[in-house]
Amino acid sequence: MNVKLEKKENSVVEIEFTMDKEQFNVELDKAFKQNAKKFKVPGFRNGMVPRAVVEKTYGEAILYEYVIENTVDEAYKTAVIENNLDIVSRPELDIKQIGKDKDFIFVVNVCVKPEAKVSDYKGIEVKKVSTRVTKKEVEEEIERTREKNARIVTVEDKARELKNGDISVIDFEGFVDEKAFEGGKAENFELTIGSGQFIPGFEDQMIGMKVDEERDINVKFPEEYHATDLAGKDATFKVKLHEIKEKILPELDDEFAKDISEFDTLEEYRKDVNKKVKQRKENQAKAEKEQEAIEKFIEKVEVTIPDGMIDEEVEKMVEEMNANLSYQGLNIDQYLQYMGMSLEDYKKEMRGQAEKRIKLNLGLEAVATQEKVEVSDEDIDTKIKELAAQYGAKDEESLLKNENARNYMKQELIHEKTLKVITDSIVEK
Question: For 123, which DSSP code?
């Protein structure tokens, strides 16, 4: 088979395949013999229908389909390997000519990985992020710990009014246009006042209620509410308060420090909290600066990305999203229904993010080449073992020998090392 490659714009490669008519006729005959038993014609035994009768009964094209199935995919794969093509999109097949006593000509258009250029990737300027710890931040951290260690007690005083921070136990039912709506009813529901768990205004209007009191709460659903049939509508909730619970916070003293830490005094504990808040802020600042550097690095990447490559990245992102949702017992269809979005709209929305991911990866590859970044077999072994231990993989040895796993890990490690080259040279301003 004759193969001809032509590079088009935007990293598209056109591969034209020509099978001469003699070989095509041989393939037709082979297709007929391989599939003879599939053709059923009244008056003929199974597998004994003459080829001329098959072509007349089913049409000549029936054998063309078998030839296409048997030859196109194999010819394409061979061409990709022999020409060392780095494919980044799904191939598009176009049959140019097919028929008896004719050359069989078909064309495959496919996108190959484009080359990126990056300059000035060192010394990227980022905003300086303060890591100073204030007394207020330390006290807020301690207060959160007190909240976690609070005792929940039922208020016995029936005259006591519901206030911010209390836990209410309520029955409620919601109505829109005086009609109850689905999902708007519950009994003995625990709601912390001030948590913002319910529609804006709901919890505020409950303040001042007493046990056994009933009250109508009037609210308006947000315009962007997830249930589109309720979005922007006025609603009335009939609420009955059954019980008030309050949090009793532990005293802020040395005993508290002993109970929740390894320290004997509140002062020692407070110093440790300061240290931990400082470390957290430094980690956050580092992450923010690196993210800003990555965003600016992407802007420096010069490359034209073919649409087919973006399409493939979007599909990959949809698969990743679906996999992540599966851990929550959901799938992409349920998520999109909840968001009021079609799969097509979601894919369109993802294209910008997909393009940025591609630019980042291509840019890192370009820098890795310039910096001669390499990883050893030992590096790959170590990383695979770490991940195997982290995810509880049982067959570590097979992973270590798996070429696909090793190639993937090699690429990931190269990207990590290259990214470090960039982020280590960040300049704060």
Answer: S
The CATH-assigned architecture of domain 151-248 is Roll (3.10)
Is pTM, for the whole model, over 0.90? no
Q: Tell me the CATH architecture of domain 2-111.
A: 2-Layer Sandwich (3.30)
DSSP at 133: P
Domain segments of the chain as ranges: 2-111, 151-248
Model pLDDT for residues 76-104, shown as the tens digit of each residue = 999 999 999 999 999 999 999 999 889 99
Q: State yes or no: pLDDT of 124 exceeds 80.
A: yes
The distance from CA 219 to its chain's CA centroid, rounded to whole angstroms, is 35
**Cβ neighbours of residue 176 under 8 Å, at least 6 residues apart?**
230, 233, 234, 235
- Alpha-carbon distances, residue 412 vs 84, 368, 400 (angstroms): 22, 12, 15
Return the closest-CA partner of residue 174 out of 164, 158, 165, 186. Answer: 186
Of 208, 206, 202, the residue nearest 234 (C-alpha):
202
